[in-house]
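Exercise 7.
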Amino acid sequence: MFKQVISIDGKKIGKGHQVFIIAEVGVNHNGDKEIAKKLIDVAVSAGADAVKFQTFDPETLVTKEAKKAEYQDKNEKTVRGEETQYQMLKRLMLKREYHPELKTYAEQRGIIFLSTPFALSDAEI
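Solution. The predicted structure, written as tokens, is:
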């Protein structure tokens, strides 16, 4: 049975503690910093403890010729036309220089900023 208690930014997670809710933003900001801020606001309004983004660089994640997954192509084909996975990720990528500002914004709003790195270089920021 799981008895471990961990802490994220001072909030304890585990048996005997409140549920820790993470609002997953992923790439739903479409690479737009202002949309990312609005999604932080929505996470705060929803009562989430943390808001989580994704940190990646298409240059280290996929080849420039990689085709999109079937579900990606199906969901975006009518909007974007033919597009490689690299092009799509480049468009959806949250610029690295946005991270500090978004982290500060989240902290000012009282929510923990998290991001899932896809590579060691992503984790370093």
